[in-house]
Amino acid sequence: MQANRSRDTQPEILVRRLLHARGLRYRVDVRPVPSLRRRADIVFTRKHIAVFIDGCFWHGCPEHGTRQFKPNITYWTDKIARNVCRDLETVNHLQEEGWTVLRYWEHVRPEEVVASIEAEYRRRS
Ligand SMILES: [Zn+2]
Predict the structure, then answer these.
(1) Alpha-carbon span 80 to 61, nearest angstrom
(2) Residue 107 Cα, ligand 1 centroid: separation in angstroms?
(3) Which mean pLDDT values do the consecutive 10-residue runs of the chain (125 residues) have?
């Protein structure tokens, strides 16, 4: 199983729809910089903002992280620990390239996520 987000999860779709309704235009599921192997969920290329909506389970949300998959808990926690490491590398890499990285847990209400993204977007106008 690929240890990363599946494309087009429900929270992501809602966030995109709301951003679009707010008049913000973005690219979806692209690499913000060529040197980064990962894609971001939502990218504002000219503003240099990359947004990640992190799945609670795969990215180790402190509230919902390891409650699922009680059997094989070590296996899953190792996998998740690696994901968390990779997430930090991603953030560092993008910040070194001058990007702003916005990360949200999938459990955060889409309206809150969008308000936060929009504030950063307007700040960079
Ligand atoms: Zn969560």
Answers:
(1) 10
(2) 5
(3) 56 95 95 92 96 91 72 79 94 96 96 97 88
